[in-house]
Structures are given as C-alpha cells and as structure tokens.
Design goal:
The protein is an all-alpha fold. It has two domains: 2-90, Uncharacterised protein YqeY/AIM41, N-terminal domain (Hypothetical Protein Yqey, Chain: A, domain1); 99-149, Orthogonal Bundle (Arc Repressor Mutant, subunit A), CATH 1.10.10.410. It contains seven helices and no strands. The chain has helices at residues 2-15, 19-41, 49-72, 76-90, 99-113, 121-131, 138-149. The longest helix has 24 residues, at 49-72. 17% of the residues are buried.
Amino acid sequence: MLRDDLQNTLKEAMKSRDTETVNAVRLIIAGQKEKDVEARGKGQEKASDDVLLAMMQSMIKQRNESIKIYNDGNRPDLAAKEQSEINVISRFLPKQLNAEEAEAAIKAVVTSLGASSIKDMGKVMGALKTQYAGQMDFGAASAIIKKILA
C-alpha cells in the first residue's frame, strides 16, 4: 500500500508540475529500491513496509540535522528546501506518537516483556521497532527506556 501511495503521489505531482513533491518522492523511491536490493540479498522478495517507514524516519532525521547546519550557516534557502522535503516525506508516515503516548507504549512493552534491567534494553527496542515502526522517534525512546529500566 505504501508503494502504491508513493507511485500515485508521484504521478499526481508530475501532472500538477509540483517539482518539490516530485523530487522528494523520487528520493523516497530511490531509498526504497536500495532497501529492496538489501532485502533480496537476505532472501526476501522486497523490503517490508516497516523497513521503508524506518528509512523515511531516518531521511527526516538527516534533513533536520541539515536544517540546523544550514540555519547556523545563514542559508535559509537551503533550510527551506530541506523542510519542504520533510513535509512531503511526513505525508507517508503514520501519525507520530506524542511524548506521553510514547512513554505509555514503552511502559507497556517493558511490562509485557518483563524487562527489569538495562540489559533488557535491546529486547525492548526490538519490540518497539516491530510494533511502532514509523510512529516513534527511537532516539528519544532510548532515553525513556533507560530512565524506566535504571
């Protein structure tokens, strides 16, 4: 379904001559193809939607870092371009959990796994990535998990 949404958005953006959307969607599709090649190397037909959602989250993270650098370097034009790409990429991600929802989800996973120490962090992160792919910032989740398990 995600793949179909990307293709349909690309077609519509090309018809309406929306170059920002066309360029951003093409970047996503290029990343998707890379992930598909990696998946075939692992014996799968194509990358799962979870893998693609994680890839898009990392694309957003990279662009946020670039925006900070461009703003520090007094290049608002480049920062605006990165922000427009973030806006397009975000359209394909599921609703992001806010801080309270994320913490509640993490506590539920910790409880369900019976995690009790920092040694269980890997299991908790793995379960979160499976259940909440594309819905949560796992960098922030890591800090919350450490706080809960400490």
